[in-house]
Specification:
Serine Threonine Protein Phosphatase 5, Tetratricopeptide repeat; Alpha-Beta Plaits; 2 domains; 11 helices; rod-shaped
Length: 330
């Protein structure tokens, strides 16, 4: 039983080595089986396939011869055992053989037939010519009453079926393993892509947060600067006297007066203009205003219809108010 178990384990290991591409090691593993069971059909078959792939036709021929010799020896032992157990039937069989003129009726083992056919091909390839006549080994085993003769092929066929089933199972397991590996790789790739996307999103949020923080700091500095400037201006307000002198007749001045008044109302509402009115005699007008600087006042006055229409000349005098009378709030 141990030898059968070892043979099966060696077959499995040999198959694994074959799939791994290590043909020499696989051949050694199958040879171990033949050393104990020279007629082991699966070991013989795999060795022939390996040596055929390796184009080692001499070794293939040696395997064929060894297998044929082992089968012949095994069948002779079985036949002798049967003759000892059934001497009368054996004698009747020999008498019948002589009566028929020496013609023996037997069934050839399919394994032997295949081996002989391959042997002829290999010998021809090696240039050794055709096999000698009568080389076919016949296997006869008598069973049951009357010395009925049957071919000893049941064990061989069973081994073939078991080997085929084992090969199919091994192939299915390999397919499942590849499918599982592909699924695992796909899941890993999806997880890696997800992590990459999350990392990119986190980096983007971090960048946007830093940008928003920087912008908020800049706006805070700007507001602080404006507040400081405003406080400074309130402590020492800059005031301007704008003097306008008419360059055109009063009729043209009066015609544009309504637009000039809209201009004045706008900047009174915004808190820029403090006082305005006509000069006496009526040769122009005067506006007292406040502003950040002279340039800011000039920009405001350029929108005056009188100035835009070149109807007046303009002088601007800047001064710093250090004191104001009661009731006047600058």
């Amino acid at each position: 039983m141990k030898a059968i178990k070892d043979s099966k384990e060696n077959v499995v290991e040999g198959r694994r080595l074959e799939q791994a591409g290590d043909l020499s090691e696989a051949a050694g593993m199958y040879q171990k089986i033949m050393d104990h069971d020279g007629g082991n059909q699966e070991a013989v078959g795999r060795l022939l396939v390996i040596y055929r792939k390796m184009k080692e036709y001499g070794k293939e021929l040696a395997v064929i011869k060894g297998a044929l010799a082992a089968v012949e020896q095994r069948d002779k032992a079985l036949q002798e055992k049967w003759i000892k157990a059934h001497p009368k039937a054996a004698g009747a069989g020999r008498a019948m053989f002589r009566k028929l003129g020496g013609a023996e009726v037997s069934a050839a083992d399919p394994m032997v037939t295949r081996l002989l056919k391959r042997k002829a091909f290999v010998e021809k390839r090696l240039g050794r010519g055709k096999p000698k006549k009568g080389a076919i080994i016949r296997h006869i085993a008598a069973k049951g009453r009357g010395g009925r003769k049957k071919s000893l092929v049941a064990g061989t066929r069973k081994s073939e079926r078991e080997a085929a089933i084992a090969a199919r199972k091994e192939k299915a397991a390999a397919v499942r393993q590849r499918a599982d590996e592909q699924r695992r790789q796909k899941v890993e790739a999806q997880e890696a892509e997800k992590q990459k996307t999350e990392a990119q999103e986190a980096e983007k949020q971090k960048t946007e947060a830093a940008k928003a923080e920087k912008q908020a700091a800049a706006e805070a500095r700007k507001a602080e600067k404006q507040a400081a400037a405003k406080a400074k201006a309130e402590q020492h307000p800059s005031l301007f006297i704008v003097s306008l002198r008419y360059l055109v007749p009063l009729e043209e001045i009066d015609a544009a007066m309504s637009r000039h008044m809209k201009f004045l109302n706008k900047y009174y509402e915004q808190g820029n203009f403090l006082v305005s009115g006509r000069q006496v005699p009526r040769t122009g007008g005067t506006i007292i205003t406040r502003g950040k600087n002279r340039a800011a006042v000039e920009r405001i006055m350029k929108s005056d219809p009188f100035v835009k229409g070149k109807m007046v000349s303009m002088d601007i005098i800047e001064f710093s108010a250090s004191r104001v009378g009661k009731g006047l709030k600058l």
